[in-house]
Amino acid sequence: MEENSNKDFLSEELKAEAENSPAEDTNSLKNTTEESLLTEEGQNAPKPIKTKRKGAIQISVLVAAGILLCALIVFGVCKIFFDNSIVGTWIVEGSTATNDQLKTEEEAVNGNTYYIFTDEKDKDGKKIAKLSVGTMELTGTYDIINTNDGPQTLSVSLSYFFTGEYDFKVSGNALTGKVLTLSSDNGDFNFLSTSKPKVSVAKSDDFKVNKDIVGEWNESDYNITYIFNEDGTAHVNEGGTLTVDGTYVVDDSKITITYLASQESTLDIEYSLDGDTLVLSGLGYTKVK
Fold first, then answer.
1. DSSP code at position 159
2. What CATH number matches the domain at 88-194, 2.40.50, 2.60.330, 2.40.128, 2.20.25?
3. Longest CA pairwise span in the chain (Å)
4. Are 183 and 168 in contact (CB under 8 A)?
5. What are residue 277's phi and psi, to 5 degrees?
6. Is the pLDDT of residue 182 over 80?
7. What is the mean pLDDT of residues 258-273?
8. DSSP code, position 51
9. In this structure, are residues 142 and 160 in contact, taking their beta carbons and an 8 Å threshold?
10. Each residue of 209-238: pLDDT tens digit?
């Protein structure tokens, strides 16, 4: 009897709790759950990727880049293997320096003469050629005469050092080394392609700055220019055809310029100051401002 009472009491409590609790709408719960799932899935679901098609401009750029790359490759191959231009620096075959040397200043000034043909032109439109020894450089001109029924002819004018007309040809390539052959009545001469090392003269321990002569000085009649720098270096330009680089020292009446030719050499110049004029070996030079 007591057990039934407890059971009835428990049943009544559950019934009362059910009656006092708010009733849940199953349809509402279902809808809420579905909306929640849809919302969560919508937030977490990856967004569709929109693929962009390459436009006509992009394709044109890619095609142009490919053509340019092919052109560069063809140009490089032709330059390495088929370039027979005389433009460049050459040294006489059999000189003390060869292609695998020419690395130090000692080798560069050991009596070696460099023949340089450039693409540059002078004021008259003639191509510029140079002859270089040590820190001296002589400038002249050259021309190439093409004929239909014979070899090419080189006409060169580099003062009395290297002047005349020569039949020529360029053989070899940039990898194995190029050879320039000049032919004349005196026979054939071979030149090897190379590069001239940068050379300089060490400043003298006796150098002291002389403010009176520092600067650029020009003599207009002969078009000669001297430049004396505060760091002890000097530059001489005679008429635009001969240049010399070196160092200098000054005593009471003499300027001594040291430069490199086939060996280290010096040039002594008597000097004096006459107002604003620097007198060198009897010629008056005006300071260039």
1. T
2. 2.40.128
3. 151
4. yes
5. -105, 130
6. yes
7. 91
8. P
9. no
10. 999 999 999 999 999 999 999 999 999 999
